[in-house]
Amino acid sequence: MKEKQQNNGAGYETCPPGIAQGITIGKKAVSNRLFLAPMAGLGHVAFRELVAEFGGYGLLFTGMCSAKALPHENPATSPVFKWRKQELATLVCQIFGPDPQSMAAAAQRIEAEGFFGVDLNFGCSVAAICKRGCGAEILKTPDLAVEILARVRASVSIPVFVKFRTGWINDPRPAIDLAKRFEDNGADALVFHPRVAPDRRSRPPRWEQISLIKEAVTIPVFGNGNVFDANDLSTVVKQTGCDGIAIGRMAVSRPWIFAQWTKGFTPTIGTYHHTAIRMTELLAKHHGERFAVKLYKKFIPYFSASFRFGHSICKELLKADTMDELRDNINGVFERDPEIIARPNLNLFL
Q: Can you give the pTM of this predicted structure?
């Protein structure tokens, strides 16, 4: 694909030096401290392959996988529990469930398949998940959260991560206590999102709470929440002393962000065009055309957020029912040389 030259937006700095350094989690080495955060409906195998083609990350995380279903899940047909063999050495599978037994059984399947590690989801605040007694709902019963972790830890030897939020009230003390208990019961690393569950993303994360979690434990602590540019990355690392950062929505908007921040990769307008087309190819390869179109439409708002008049671009790209129509729309957008903005339009970050 022919590269078109254009101002690629201000602020394409690299990350703080410490983030690009390796770290040991459990007994396994990780090349750097910048991770792809788990994202339901977005962190699928096709998107992870796209990220992997740019490189620059330490670990990748799957989307949420149901612990109840996972022991019998077929990777050939599952939209979530699906992977490429070459990514397993740096891939962590996230699971959710309301009881220790099913979570432990799921973790055993994950270890048997060869994943780097398993991540326990105690952070999702989506109503459909919480109503099932899963995700952030478990934080209302701290003893259950600890029991789930202890059972999983006793069942596997791979690294165990815990992803959790501040809780359900705007008081970090319960989260600090839980962090200590997680460490005492065998967690190898914590990924902390400093927001209360009822807020979801309606208010800014309280980054200062990450430092409270970091100070409470000796295991690695990774921050998460509203890291959208290199300045945000430097600020949160400097302010909190966290061991690394898990990047979610920003990575969907710019899948090369890990290479940009850890390897000095500089995107051009051609990078955006190539990425949009490549995503159609990877989705079709892994999921079949019909489901691929549905998944691509989840990707479009985040991708469109990088452009001035992103809402109009988003609407234009969404007007498609087939992959061929999607590609035609993508090519039409880039024929007009859309202007890239340095910081994405967060109104398009769903």
A: 0.94
